[in-house]
Design goal:
By secondary structure, the chain is α/β, with parallel strands linked by helices. It is built from 2 helices and 16 strands.
């Protein structure tokens, strides 16, 4: 019997103590289903499935789900079906204070909003070559991240993508990137070197604010940017 049918039955009757008790038991039984934020946990990694694809996600209890070194596989098998791991979901590794490194497979094409935000001891990550967009807040406040390899296929770097990466020393932006979002590198106070390619057409507000170790930035001709994009 569906939940809506149960509610309709009780709605037309005088609620007794026994009925209230029954409703409470029904609600308690439904809560685990409502709260579940993932489809499966396989070898310590949480996944959601859509069609033949899998997205790495987090559990539902707002705790740090991952620690140490995590290796994400290219595919997983669940319920007799094999899924290709193509995405890392919103805040999937967010605020995992014990996460030190992540190996992301080449099958991944999307790394979504805040995927690694607040992973304060994360020191190493390689972005797969098939990723085209570094979404907003992806590595925000990863204060131990020293180096990052951005592949040639990336075309845009989102708002605050590396904001607060205070240990980040150098970044090479590939030629395919055309846009850098607001505050993308703000607060990267150890950043001493950044290479901006000729193909860049837009640099957002306060992109390099607080980059106190960055002494020189060469902006290509034709870039549209706000005066607030600089270090001030």
């Amino acid at each position: 019997m569906k939940t809506t049918e149960i509610i309709r039955i009780f709605a037309n009757r005088k609620i007794t103590k026994d009925m209230k008790r029954t409703l409470l038991l029904i609600s308690a039984g439904l809560l685990p289903l409502i709260a579940l934020a993932y489809d499966a946990k396989i070898n310590g990694i949480f996944y959601n499935f859509t069609g033949s694809e899998a997205e790495v996600t987090s559990s539902n209890d707002n705790t740090a789900n991952y620690s140490g070194s995590v290796v994400i596989p290219e595919s997983v098998t669940y319920g007799g079906k094999t899924y290709s791991v193509t995405s890392i979901g919103n805040s999937a590794f967010g605020n995992c204070s014990g996460l030190t490194s992540v190996r992301i497979p080449e099958s991944v094409t999307n790394i979504n909003n805040g995927a690694f935000q607040g992973c304060r001891v994360l020191n190493s990550v390689i972005i797969p070559k098939n990723v085209t967009v570094i979404d907003q807040n992806v590595f925000m406040n990863c204060s131990s991240l020293r180096t990052v390899s951005i592949p040639e296929g990336v075309t845009s770097i989102g708002i605050a993508a590396f904001s607060g990466c205070s240990s980040l020393v150098s970044v090479t932006i590939p030629n395919d990137v055309t846009s850098i979002g607001n505050g993308a590198f703000s607060g990267c106070r150890s950043l001493t070197s950044i290479t901006i390619p000729e193909g860049i057409t837009r640099i957002g507000f306060v992109t390099f604010k607080g980059c106190r170790s960055l002494t020189t930035i060469i902006i290509p001709n034709g870039v549209t940017r706000s005066k607030r994009s600089d270090k001030n």
